[in-house]
Amino acid sequence: MAKPVPPKIAPKPGKVTVLRALYGYTAQQEDELTFTEGDILYLVDQTDANWWRARCGMKVGLIPSNYVEMKMDAIENPLHDAARRGNIDFLKECLTNGVSATGLDASGNSPLHWSAKGGHLECVQEIIRAAMKTYRNPKHFINAQNKLGDTPLTAQPAKTTCQSSISFWNTEQIPQSKIKTNSVQ
Which residue numbers delimit the SH3 domain (predicted)? Predict the structure, then answer.
């Protein structure tokens, strides 16, 4: 009697497996993904050894596994890293590819904590915009405390434009007409 297939383990939240296309591929079927050599893809599912499900930009589809290489095994908390460094392009790419704007790292910091602490205003604004798509009232994620009891507002070293921006978002529920939804294409 054959052993039953073990259940698939869900990926750790905030962990992203990154692939680089070794060759270009043109989709042959509706459920496949077209990509070019050098494209960065994000692994969604690798249940089938030959055909993996991946995301490239705003599209998701099957890709031949032998056309890609693991760029890195995985990036732990990529949005936190982008926020900490002020890397707005990578931050937007992470958000576009489904990385949670409100996830916490091992010390309980959200990406908002890191971008505010670094004084990265553009990152602060982008994270708040992304989180607003999930939570209409920003107070609970703006006021979220890390393990030391710091909020994004208090985690920063001094009064900055970031602090003013966070305070603005924290005052009242913002009407949807005031929220800019910048999407990366």
Answer: 14-73
